[in-house]
Design goal:
This protein is an alpha/beta fold. It has helices at about 10-20, 35-40, 45-55, 100-115, 125-140, 155-165, 190-200, 215-230, 240, 250-265, 275-290, 320-335; strands spanning about 60-65, 70, 85-90, 115-120, 145, 170, 180-185, 205-210, 270, 295-300, 315-320, 345-350, 355. The chain is elongated and about 70 Å long. It comes from Kribbella aluminosa.
Length: about 375
């Protein structure tokens, strides 16, 4: 539950708070202990104690000397004069990404300005945890939901529950195509298209693509942009270079297999989904003896991830993460005040910036680069 923008005790408090108002605990029930919080969230006793203190101040739990902590008999949450709960839930797939953390900061800035309390749920990339968070939101105590969905199929049941509870929803970064809903997105097509154009202008005609997630609209839009650029330059679309296959940094064996197979097609550049994928690919290329940038140039579809990897790229996309959070919160709160009829959904697409870190050739006929070839070993050696 780490975040560069919010202390851990606040994140823990928000998570526990959401469980209480969502009905996971009944009034008077024994609550989690400081030690259990330490074990669950991997934090110190001081951090756990502060989270419990905050919940006690809010009137959600009570402490009884020698007996422990209990859910308050009558739980109270901050309310506006109109009697609403004054809470906005933001569900994200992970807080380890700088892109997601900046997005959350953008949401939080608007909520604070308008007097709303932000509840944060980290689904850790799991559909079941995401579904649980949305279910708690539909149970009450939440005025609206911003969801940055995990990759995978749409959760129709969760959306139906929220709609029946008259809770407005706004999607961020990606969306579920079969569900009409407000969304704030990045221009992902432009990311794939413009970065590919930049690589082609540098003379690359064989460009490999490395992905983290593969079952998300943002990923498919970036791939579409990449393919369009190849087609406009009449370059071959090779499945071994463009197939949507997950290259996961934490899965070294599977990742190595994906990149090792791709290198057989002799790419001279790699278009990497994000900084974490780029860093993992860099390590693997170094182990394989492929020199960067002499034999392989790299481009990143966002600038999140290890900062020491960014200088290795010849081009990267800077995405407006903070603005995306702000716009999503603004739309949600406006919908809460007015009508949030799904038949009148709004879709906002934010422009991205392509940063070029090396000399880029003027537009015109591409100057082909030779694919890297490893010298053949002399059997006699």
């Amino acid at each position: 539950m780490s975040s560069s923008s919010r202390p851990k005790y606040e994140q823990i408090k928000d998570d526990l708070r959401l469980q209480i108002i969502g009905g996971d605990y009944t009034p008077g029930q024994s609550f989690v202990t400081q030690q259990q919080i330490c074990d669950i969230y991997d934090v110190s006793m001081l951090t756990a104690a502060r989270a419990l203190n905050e919940l006690e101040v809010e009137g959600l739990v009570t402490r009884r000397r020698g007996k422990g902590t209990f859910v308050a008999e009558t739980t109270t949450v901050p309310r506006e004069n109109d009697g609403t709960a004054n809470n906005i839930l933001c569900v994200v797939p992970s807080l380890t990404s700088g892109h997601v953390s900046n997005f959350v900061r953008g949401v939080e800035s608007v909520c604070t300005e308008r007097g709303f309390h932000l509840l944060l749920a980290d689904s850790h990339g799991r559909e079941d945890r995401q579904s649980q968070a949305l279910q708690r939101a539909s149970a009450g105590g939440v005025d609206g939901v911003i969801i940055y969905p995990v990759e995978g199929a749409a959760d129709h049941e969760a959306v139906s529950r929220l709609r029946r509870a008259d809770v407005p929803i706004v999607f961020a970064d990606r969306y579920w195509p079969e569900i009409s809903m407000d969304a704030v997105l990045l221009d992902d097509f432009a990311i794939g298209y413009e970065l590919t154009q930049a690589l082609i202008r540098r003379g690359h005609t064989r460009i490999g693509t490395l992905w983290g997630e593969i079952a998300a609209t943002s990923v498919r839009d970036r791939l579409s942009g990449h393919l369009r650029a190849l087609q406009e330059h009449r370059l071959p679309v090779l499945s071994e270079l463009t197939a949507l296959r997950s290259y996961v940094p934490l899965n070294a064996r599977a990742g190595s297999s994906v990149l090792a197979q791709m290198l057989k097609a002799k790419p001279t550049a790699l278009l990497c989904a994000n900084g974490f994928v780029l860093a993992s690919a860099t390590n693997e290329l170094n182990r394989s003896g492929v020199r960067i940038p002499e034999e392989m140039e790299l481009a990143g579809m966002d600038e999140a991830g290890p900062y020491d990897a960014l200088p290795l790229t010849v081009a990267s996309a800077a995405v407006p993460s903070y603005e995306m959070g702000q716009r999503a919160a603004e739309i949600l709160l406006d919908k809460r005040i007015g009508s949030h009829d799904e038949d009148n959904s709004e879709r906002v697409v934010l422009a991205v910036t392509i940063n070029l870190h090396g000399r880029v050739l003027d537009p015109g006929p591409a100057v082909p680069r030779r694919s890297h070839r490893r010298p053949a070993r002399n059997p006699a050696q």
